[in-house]
Amino acid sequence: MNRWLPRAYLSIVYALLYLPILVLVVFSFNSSRTGYRWGGLSLQWYESLFNNHAMVQAMWNSLWLALAAATVSTLIGALTALALHRYRFRGKRVLNGMLFVVMMSPEIVLAISLLALFLLIGLQLGFVSLLLAHVTFCLPFVVITVMARLSGFDERLPEAARDLGASDFTMTRTVLIPVIMPALLAGWLLGFTLSLDDVVVSTFVSGPSYEILPLRIYSMVRVGLKPEVNALGTLLLVFSLVMLMLSQWILTRSKR
Amino acid sequence: MLKVRQQPFKTAVLALVWGWLLVLVLAPNLLVVGTSVLTRDAGSFIALPVNLDSYRRLLDPLYLDVFLHSLYMASVTTLCCLLIGYPFAWALSRLTKPRQTLLIFLLIVPFWTNSLVRTYALKLLLATNGLINNALIGLGLIDEPLQMLYTEGAVIVGLVYLLLPFMILPLYSVFEDLRRELLMASHDLGAGKLPTFIHVVVPLTLPGVIAGVMLVLLPAMGLFFVADILGGSRNLLVGNVIKNQFLDARDWPFGAAASILLTVAMAVLLLAHKLSERRLGNGESKP
After folding, report:
1. Is residue B18 domain-resident?
2. What residues contact A16, with CB distance under 8 A and at least 6 apart?
3. Could you tell me which of B217, B257, B230, B246 has the C-alpha nearest to residue B56?
4. Which of A31, A140, B164, B233 could make a disulfide contact with A103, Cβ separation 3.0–4.6 Å?
5. B149 min Cα distance to partner chain A (Å)
6. Which residues of chain B are within 8 Å of residue A167 when distances are taken between CB atoms?
């Protein structure tokens, strides 16, 4: 089989995937106001971004939310993965199935169901409703990440700990947690990114008291072009790149 | 012999997980099913009596048109992703391991980047006075700018752009498992390239295809912001209808019924995925 044809094909698809991102980054340094023509280098959009108080506030809100959602979902997700891995219990298949369905179901279905729940129980839409929703959609991803790590793990270690008299809790703390640590970090980073990126679910379950970044961006880009969005997008891109490289580094280093 | 002893840790963990899933997944979905058979109410969103009016209204020509158009755009999106992604995943699986790792990394970088910002970036390219039109006019290929933004095509381009990695990753994983000996065996038994492809490669990669279709087709009907930013008012997705009913028109029963439409679509696709894996007989052996 020809060698260069598949490679040329891969290159073209990658070029198309990265073209819009490249344009975004380049135009974030554009001094022209119209947004479509190059008018020289400038950092003015970054400046106006950080002078925009509502925007900076939304950034902080999003950051706190993502930190909290990633942490809570990692905690619950890791415990779930451990339980699924170690214990036999009734309804294990159902639990697995539910997590799978949460991951597969369209975000909008999850979004309206949570909105209905929050209104029914009279929960004020804001930080708490956002947190509950974000943890729910991050959970399956954390469980999968941790399960993958556990599946390649020497079963004799926890048994040895148990034989030496360790309780379940002690064994988990001293044997299992260190083993799954890289997966915990990777799962945390994934949850953080998913939370920071979410538009669909947040549109439904956020209230005026807690404005977050994706919704702020959404209201900006619905009408016309806003050069500040280029600058913001570039910052988010750099941020995600750092996070992703961090998580890859953690996972590959731990394999040695 | 196992000692029977109290396991407070196990009980606590299971209670936490089950509690979370029952309260935040099962109960809300039951609520949506309940809402869909109630009547719209101005004050408290929903009221008795129970009826199937919302489901009947799904067949109203006005909405049926929107749904069919959304299904059409989602299907074209899925087909495009499959046509681009299938050879892509195959080519990827033939590279050396370190190269594969690097290219997979490059594929998921966009996935980790804000999807809204990426949709907006497409707008920069597609707008009437955007970069593509400027380039084409600059090259003298066209005189008048093409209308690309706010068209059906723009929505499909946006959806393909956002969802392509979700098609490629499951396909890549089935191609990685595809054993070369099987292709050689087929060749040795006298089958040509095309028969080998149809009778060996396609059946073996089918679970990946169905998984990819599931991961693309459903979001392609739900990602309302893509239609909002790139499609204008005439190219709506099912997601836009659901969002409008819940947040603007305040007709919850109808919005709930539309959302159940998506859930049913998901159930059908999940079933197809399970059947295709069972036919290959590896549904159990693979975790």
Report:
1. no
2. none
3. B257
4. A140
5. 12
6. 9
Whether the per-residue pLDDT at A158 is higher than 80: the answer is no
Q: Which of B111, B114, B160, B251 to mutate to test the interface with A (most CBs of A within 10 A)?
A: B114
Quick check: is B43 in a domain? no
Are residues B9 and A168, on separate chains, in Cβ contact within 8 Å? yes
Residue at B63 is within a domain: yes
Q: Is residue B29 part of a domain?
A: no
Among A9, A168, A197, the residue with its CB nearest the CB of B87 is: A9
Question: Are A21 and B224 a contacting pair at CB < 8 A?
Answer: no
| Domain at B80, CATH number | 1.10.3720.10
Query: What domains are defined for chain A?
Result: 1-41 (no CATH), 44-254 (1.10.3720.10)
Q: Do A236 and B122 touch (CB under 8 A)?
A: no
Contacts of A82 in chain B (CB under 8 A): 13
ipTM metric = 0.85
- Judge whether residue B287 has pLDDT over 80: no
Between A54 and B111, the more confident residue is A54
Compute φ and ψ for A59, nearest 5 degrees: -60, -50
- Whether A232 has its CB under 8 Å from any CB of chain B: the answer is yes
Asked if A201 contacts A99 with a C-beta cutoff of 8 angstroms, the reply is: no
- Contact criterion met (CB < 8 Å) for B117 and A229: yes
At B169-212, the pLDDT tens digits run 899 988 888 777 777 777 778 777 777 777 878 888 888 898 89
**For A31-58, how does the pLDDT look when each residue is reduced to its tens digit (9 = 90+)?**
777 656 677 777 888 888 888 888 899 9
Question: What is the overall mean pLDDT for chain B?
Answer: 84
Contacts of A63 in chain B (CB under 8 A): none
Q: Rounded distance, CA A160 to CA A174, Å?
A: 12
Find out whether A69 and A195 touch, Cβ atoms under 8 Å. Answer: yes
Domain count, chain B: 1
Partner residues linked to B46 by β-bridges: B40
